[in-house]
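To: structure desk
From: M.T.
Subject: fold request, one chain
Message: Could you run this one when you get a chance? Sequence is below, nothing fancy, just the single chain.
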Amino acid sequence: MDNRFEVAVDGIDVHAFTVPTDGPDGVEQDGTATWTSTTMILVRAHGGGVTGLGYTYGDVSVARFVESKLAPVATGADAFTPAMTWQTMSAEIRNAGRPGAGAMALSCVDIALWDLRARLIGQPLFRTLPACHDHLPVYGSGGFTNYPLDRLVEQLSAWVDQGIDRVKMKTSRDPDQDPRRLTAVRKAIGDKPRLFTDANGALTGKQALAWAYRFHDEWGVSWLEEPVSSADFDGLRLVRECGPPGVDVAAGEYGYVLRDFTNLIEQRAVDCLQADVTRCGGISALLQVAGLAAGHFMDLSAHTAPAVSAHAFCAVPKCRHLEYFHDHVRIERMVFDGVLSPVGGALRPDPSRPGLGLEVRWADAEPYRVHGRSLD
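Reply: Done. Structure tokens follow.
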């Protein structure tokens, strides 16, 4: 047997960094939430003298979950069979709480194991997956509801100026203010770029249906993300079936287990399914979601975490696009070397860098540490 395939995972370490937002007065808001910081949970998987990286965004408790339930399972596993290890880890957390924090913990360990495998082989991660693409179109995402008009316009216009022809803004915290905000954005970016909105579940079904027509008819909006709660299948279906043609309803970013995605499809709740590789169980689980979507002739859109999504979603046959989310772009550039930048409105994994192509900038990350041991 080739000794290259006799590599065990010989250790897992976990770190977390909480980075304040750069929003007005240190605050960012969407339709239903307010936050002042974002926490990245970073996992490193070691084996064969090589280290793989994985991460998610969540509470620092996710780091403790990894240490308590998953690191003992992953340690000693075959570094070349991350999907097999995923099965074992998934079973381990059944009674500890698989959805939510459990799924995010599973995700970041799984991503680290896939990254380790790719680095051991000496290939970029996307090439070690059943890749259908070598690049992914992106849409600029931010436009928080508490942004003053000048910052809102500046942010979305900057993405358009970079060649990104799809941009998304948050809506529906104060619906009376949305016409003013949408008008300013549409005037600034012009008629050609596609304008997306995200209500983060702030509206009822009938409210969302009424706004869907206004958004489309007055500002040319073509994407309604979570116009109602993603758990409100009836409300999503109402907007999807009765809303204006040419407007797609999307949800799925809070899918933690495969059945969450099956429910959205079976309930005919969305036109485009979303998945977050750092929440849904990692790359091993994303491949299952990708097959589910393809089997139902439905596009899948990558939710945030662009540094890992750019590789993982190359293996999604019906991938529509990737969310280039302001907070995550900012944090990933702070924490990692090797982060991709859009070219021609798309992210293209670097074929010359093994794995995700990322290296941690420990000295830059250290001031934000809230968990784990300093490695600087």
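Reply (cont.): DSSP finds 14 helices and 17 strands in the chain. Let me know if you need anything else for the meeting.
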